[in-house]
Amino acid sequence: MTQVTEHGTPLQPAPAASPPVAQPPAGPPRAAAPRRRRRSPAAAACVLGGAVAAGLGLGFLAVLVIVLWISSPYPDSGPGGALHLAAGLWLLAHGAELVRYDTLSGVPAPVGVTPLLLIALPALLMRRAARLGSAPGDGSDAEEVLPASAVFSAVLCGYLGVGAVATVYAAAGPMPADPISAGWHVPLVAVLAAAGGVWAAKGRPLGPPPLPRRWPAGVRRALARPRYALALRAGAAGALVLLGGGALIVGASLVWHGAEVKGSFLALTDVWSGRFAVLLLALALLPNAVVWAAAYALGPGFALGGGASATPLGFTGTPALPRFPLLAALPAEGPGTLLTCATALVPLAAGMAVGWFAVRRARDVSGGETALTAALGAVVCAVALAGLTAASAGPLGSGELAEFGPVWWATGVAALGWTLPGGVVVAVSVHGWRNRPVRGAAPLEEDDWHSRGMREQRWETLRKTATPLIPDPPPPPDPAPAPSADAAPPPLAAPAGPADLAVAAQAGSADPVGPGESASAGTGERPRRLTLVTALHPSALAHLPLPGASAPAPPEGRTSYGTEARPPLVAPVAGARVLARRRPPA
Fold this sequence. Notes:
mainly alpha; five-stranded antiparallel sheet; 6% strand
């Protein structure tokens, strides 16, 4: 102990007390140093995705224009002019108006008819970029998941940055874009396409978002009803029927005026590269012709410049039309015929489609709710047709061709006028037919589907219908009178018959077979499993003989378990039934 104490670690002396240091006066709290904001790689990837989507659209049109410029026998500009023209076409695909300066009169002529097939290219690319930016990662902790609003904003920024550069670049070309028109058309298409991509990545949720509780209860209940998804479906069905009818009208007109269409196509140019360019332009404008035909079937028709217009009631005016295959398929000048008036069947079919798809397959929906859903579907159809009409029309010049195509508001009003009454009538009729009362059944109230026995009535109807196939079950036997408490328990001796308690052995054995024994023991055959199903009187259980011992008789009025003997709830069944069940082969 002395060695351990002497060789131990010496203790350090305590430091001398230092004089107190004067503290500076307390001032305002020092502001914390600003934290450096961490850059988000996911947001940067979304911005890059939007820029790549815009670049792919520009690259596709640039390659197409360069190929046509190389194959042209008389190119009027160099490759720089072709690239400027490709940038202008990319802006035209978004709905922006181009300005053509090399006119005969020297007055700049706007070109505002947007080929609807070209709009599909930037819309699909932008939608794909937004969907990929919103897609979940591999689930690792390092994977950053951005909210939908952040993905939408990031992709939009990248796309619009490239769009601004393309607008400035196209200004030096032969057909620059109007800056004001490009300033709102390009963001509009980008916003709609990006919203569709984010919505698809989030699982396409339907229905309005949850409303705050401070809103009135009636407003929240009205907005939470499922009629809006049905209204969108019904409106989309009506719009598709109108566009399908327009496509049918265009195809029939092209076949009817086949000779004029062929002559116009061959008269434009005599080289294969020029004819290929004309064919591509006609294909790009084919969706425009379908929308114009739908507006023609609705009644307002479309304008052709110079005060000329085409409606089912007649072709008025003398249009100054350029030579083009699709324009050669217009109806003949003069009053309308029975064939042109037959196009009114298209909006009638659209109204029936709106009414049919506005009906819910449920009995808890009233007729007024169904009519309101059909009315909302007609409004959706009218808005869709008005938007498509506005996108498909536009000026082709500054003079007589300044008004070219259908008027969007007139087409929307006509679509609403055709589909609203027809859709409501069809919806109410279909709802009444589906909810008609069953013949021979008592009328039920609206909310008494389960409480008034409708399910039992259906089962009763099915039972009566299936009576020839399924006979009625036999009536149950009359229950035997319950024995009194003083009566002796029933004997366990089984009567003769197939339902005896003791079953004789089948292989020459005269001994009874007890529960769990084999009926073919000692015969060399595969034993059969016997299942004993019995129902005994509770008081008879006390008199069952135990193996190897004899149970004493219980006192009068008591059972062997010491409980008081009570009359049974169910009539006793004498005897037992033995069910033979074969064991499956090994």
